[in-house]
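## tool: complex_structure
## caller: assistant
## args:
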Amino acid sequence: MTRFSAFAVVKNALTGHTGWREQWPDAQPKKEYDVIIVGAGGHGLGAAYYLAKEHGITNVAVIDRGWLGGGNTGRNTTIIRSNYLYDESARLYDHALDLWDGLSQDLNYNVMFSRRGVMMLAHNVHDVQSFQRHVHSNRLNGVDNRWLSAEEAKEFCPPLNIRADARYPVMGAALQMRAGTARHDAVAWGYARTAAARGVDIIQNCPVIAIRRGPDGAVTGVDTARGFIGAKKVAVSAAGHTSVVMESAGVRMPLESFPLQALVSEPIKPVFPCVVMSNTVHAYISQSDKGELVIGSGTDQYTSYSQRGGLPLIEHTVAAICEIFPIFNRMRMLRKWGGTVDVTPDRSAIIGKTPVPNLFVNCGWGTGGFKATPGAAHVLAHTVATGEPHSLNAAFTLDRFRTGRLIDEAAAAAVAH
Amino acid sequence: MLLIHCPYCDETLPELEFAYAGEAHIARPLDPSAMSDEEWRDFLFIRSNPKGPHFERWRHIHGCARFFNAVRDTVSDRFLMTYKAGEPRPDLSKLEAA
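## result:
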């Protein structure tokens, strides 16, 4: 692997940029691996990287039905934050935020993590009470989050409409300054490149058809479109398709897959300094470094694997954006797309062991998996390598839906998060 | 936008008139106190979430307000049929042949 540096950029500029090589080889499957990870998104590729880096396990394959980073990793609105209510969530997401801080240096790949602040708007008394509770809970957990009045919110984000007669009045906001955005494609590519350099095989365009189990019930490998591949351990990190993959191993999941849509506008000059989320009206907005407004909406009401959603939802989101930020009401939108997100009943993820020996799962990230990428990958790698969960993901078990020890962020946020 | 046929009103109407109400044919337990933790988990949380035909409930909330069932393909989002609540689960093999 060629190390990226200022020197390499200058050298290649002087030689006509003919010296750049492919960043990872297009691997062909071997007969057997120590670990197979199903799903080459940020979480799966990251887990492969941490398996190699921290646990010395390099005989690893990451298998994907499409191209790497082509699922929800490349379809989200790139928001990163950690101001969750419950202790378990706050610790896990803050761990991810700690890893985001040094990720570009760690991977020698610029993921363009920009700590520009995420501001969540409160539009009614319930929002105010709920967000202030979040702020207090976060401060007790050592997680950055503070309360702003409407005027302070306007000062932080000038395009905001705080007039009292606004359709969605702003009664205040919660601001996490440590939070921000990152370039999602670069996260997948950075992990892929660095994992491949440590010996991980990344096998694309190879759908996993079924997980195969031996007579003792333990995992023996996976059947794929390119034949059977043996594995001592299998980790499923397949987002919206997790139910389908796990079903083939005889494990029924507490998941439903919904469409989640996003859209971008035409690019404009820098005008929007932060990320603003309005959970109550389901509108999420930031401006990319390219200049496009990146807008996220809520999930459609019905389950679907179509990777596209309905127009009414987009219309509602854009209408809300125009009310909250009147300066955008003549912007034109360039394109919209959808992803398939796997949602758990309590809106918290599942990372850990399954009833099947040597089969692990990382799923249920719902509408907010991107922000957790390094943290989820890190604790998944630990769980797979040692066979036991890391203290940070010990509470995020599949078994909690039997015991009733839910991590009920759904009730805490009252909406998707 | 989905166009949905309400079997009570006998009209095909835009999705905006309807509310999705989750997977269909999940019967309430007849004797809740006799259920094990595993059975409660399956009843409350486990869903089939298929990639393909899905049996689901919808409610014509801005119309007759009644619940009904539907079979929809979750890949194409196409409705294979809708039918009244209480009617038996249709035979998938016949539906796909039609």
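## assistant note: The first strand of chain B starts at residue 3 and ends at 6. Strands of chain B lie at 3-6, 11-14, 19-23, 53-59, 67-73, 79-84. Handing back to user.
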